[in-house]
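On clarity, I found the account of how folds are encoded harder to follow than it need be. Since the whole study asks how a given chain folds, the encoding of that fold should be made plain. For illustration, here is how one protein appears when written out as sequence plus structure tokens:
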Amino acid sequence: MKHDLKLTSGSVQQVVNDLNAGWRNEVVRALGMDSNTFQMAQGTLGLQSADSSGLFLMADSVPPQSTTAYYDPSGKNKRSSAYNQMLHAMLPSTSSGLRAALGDQYSNWIAYRNADTSDLSQFELFKKWASRRLDPNQETAAITAFKMTLSDPLNVALSNYVDKNFYMTFTDDSGKSFTLPSYSCTIDAATKAINTGGSASIDYDSTTASTSSNGTMVSGSASGFYDIFSASAGGSFEQLNQTAASSAFTIKGTIGKYATVVSDAAEWYDGSMVSRAYNGKNDNTIWDPNSNMGTWDSFFGANGSLARRMSSLLVVSEYDLVVTSKATYSQADFQQIKAQASFGIWPFFSASASATHTETYTLNEDGSLSVRYQLNKGLIAIWGATIQNAPN
């Protein structure tokens, strides 16, 4: 990969794109991943998981259509939320009787259902709405009609979505509890996979690495992150990013253990409902015209919220890697990077407070900069995922 001596911010972005593509291809080669479906992960979320929460958060992310993506736990795009919206945009397969019983009130029921954020079952929610909006005679007939739809797959799916048995509660460092939808990629599953996993050597050189992603299901080289050094709010590495991008990078070392772990959703998710929605693009008996929760395109289009999912995660442990920037740095540059690059250096971006690996900075005799990353045995990092297109 060739570099210009003077680079604009746009040129730096292109260099980072190429670095990401080359690094991803090295991981594919060394760890035996499928180049057609593997997406490299960067960011705070991808670099730590002390319990199942990190794995669940990653599995519940909506992957962009790119070969490398930046993931953050505060990201708003959640697969579970998108799935819930899709359910609320659909019609039951047995809705005709309920429509007849409600008449003009049907659209009011749909609006009420879609706006609800409680964990009530569909039947309890409907009874609550009917007691408030219908006269006694119509309420009785409506409840009878609704009971007939309870076994409908859509209503079953809606009830399962709010079933607390399919969620897990965690406690963060401040003692605050939070709940996440469960996935099969628990910390126990990841640890078991790691313990029986393989090992690998890494030998990446940006001057010889392939940056091609031709023919892959995922496309593009990066999503959401285009720097080499990343500072906290108020910091700036514009000049140093240009310096680093003007020269080569190497990553060398070993990965003691790596494995893939399946990331299937628990029973809050029903794949048959996704298939029904996906295969009914123009079917007016599937998509509810009274719903404003989304359309086929918003869910399954090229950038749709359910267009792709993570079918498995690549987890690693016991790694010892040295990232070297072949550019020339002064002692002042070195001190600034050590003091202010609080969110990391390409390709291992992570807020220092949440990173589980250790970082050691060295200014080499030739002026180049090396950072050694070590992850101890028993700790797990998420390096990427296998991406599947809907409706799989």
Observations:
- Residues 9-31 form the longest helix (23 residues).
